[in-house]
Automatic annotation (TrEMBL):
Function: Component of the Mediator complex, a coactivator involved in the regulated transcription of nearly all RNA polymerase II-dependent genes. Mediator functions as a bridge to convey information from gene-specific regulatory proteins to the basal RNA polymerase II transcription machinery. Mediator is recruited to promoters by direct interactions with regulatory proteins and serves as a scaffold for the assembly of a functional preinitiation complex with RNA polymerase II and the general transcription factors.
The family this protein is said to belong to: Belongs to the Mediator complex subunit 9 family.
Gene (name only): MED9
GO biological process per UniProt: regulation of transcription by RNA polymerase II
Chief location category: nucleus
Single GO term (MF): transcription coregulator activity
Identification of the protein by name: Mediator of RNA polymerase II transcription subunit 9
Organism: Trametes coccinea (strain BRFM310) (Pycnoporus coccineus)
Origin superkingdom: Eukaryota
Localization per record: Nucleus
GO cellular component: mediator complex
Assigned keywords, A-Z: Activator, Coiled coil, Nucleus, Transcription, Transcription regulation
Span list, region Disordered: 95-114
Length: 114
């Protein structure tokens, strides 16, 4: 599809060149060439618009796309903060030393198979 967009400039330049030649569109052949070139350019523009509209988000305006991007950047930053907080918590848990005076009761009935 990139070739379609790259060809637009060449096709437009061709239309401009045909329209501004010394002869202009005075001869029937020059008029036909200009009409063909113009139709080809219009068709390529139509295809490019269809392709752009078919892209995800292609139906959105630039402002709407900017708003979505800003929202996603805020979400990304919030997730990074949450991840950093979680990493600190996990780090604190894994480096914590058990207290030697901590007594645990073991229920022998619960730990004995039936």
């Amino acid at each position: 599809m990139t070739s379609l967009y790259e060809s637009l400039l060449l096709k437009l330049a061709n239309v401009v060149e045909l329209a501004t030649q010394d002869q202009g569109a005075s001869t029937p052949q020059a008029k036909q060439a200009l009409v063909r070139s113009t139709k080809d350019f219009k068709e390529s523009v139509r295809e490019a618009r269809e392709y752009a509209a078919g892209l995800p988000g292609g139906e959105m305006s630039v402002q709407e796309q900017d708003e979505v991007i800003e929202m996603l950047e805020r979400l990304k930053e919030r997730k990074r903060r949450q991840l950093a907080e979680f990493a600190e918590t996990v780090s604190g848990i894994s480096t914590a030393k058990p207290k030697p005076d901590l007594k645990m009761e073991v229920d022998s009935n619960a730990s004995t198979p039936a």
